[in-house]
Amino acid sequence: MVVGRDAYDVVLHEGKGGWTVQIVDTSGGVVSTRACRDAGEARVYASTVRQHLYWLSPEKFREYYRIAEPA
């Protein structure tokens, strides 16, 4: 099982409906998605998630972002 910074990644997407930020696991599965108003908001949110990946324990990160524990 991968833990810490290497367990998740953050991906930004621009679509017709606006911007989204996704947290993805090591298999590429989306574990969380947040819609954003614009590119600026998406970048700020993605940066915050990346900081949390670095600062928080894997357990606290999953709790904060309501991500199910990996099987």
Note the run of SSEs as H and E: EEEHH
State the end-to-end distance.
9 Å
How many domain units?
1
Quickly count the helices: 2
Share of residues in helices = 25-40%
Structural class determined from secondary elements: alpha+beta
Please, could you describe this protein's structure?
This protein is of the alpha+beta class. Helices cover 34% and strands 32% of the residues. The protein has one domain (4-64). It has helices spanning 39-55, 58-64; strands at 8-15, 18-25, 30-36. The chain has a three-stranded antiparallel sheet with strand order 1-2-3, covered by helices on one side. Strand 2 and strand 3 (30-36) form a beta hairpin. The mean pLDDT is 90.
Short account of what is shown:
By secondary structure, the protein is an alpha+beta fold. Helix content is 34%, strand content 32%. The chain has helices spanning 39-55, 58-64, and strands at residues 8-15, 18-25, 30-36.
Topology:
Elements lengths: L7 E8 L2 E8 L4 E7 L2 H17 L2 H7 L7
Antiparallel strand pairs: 1-2, 2-3
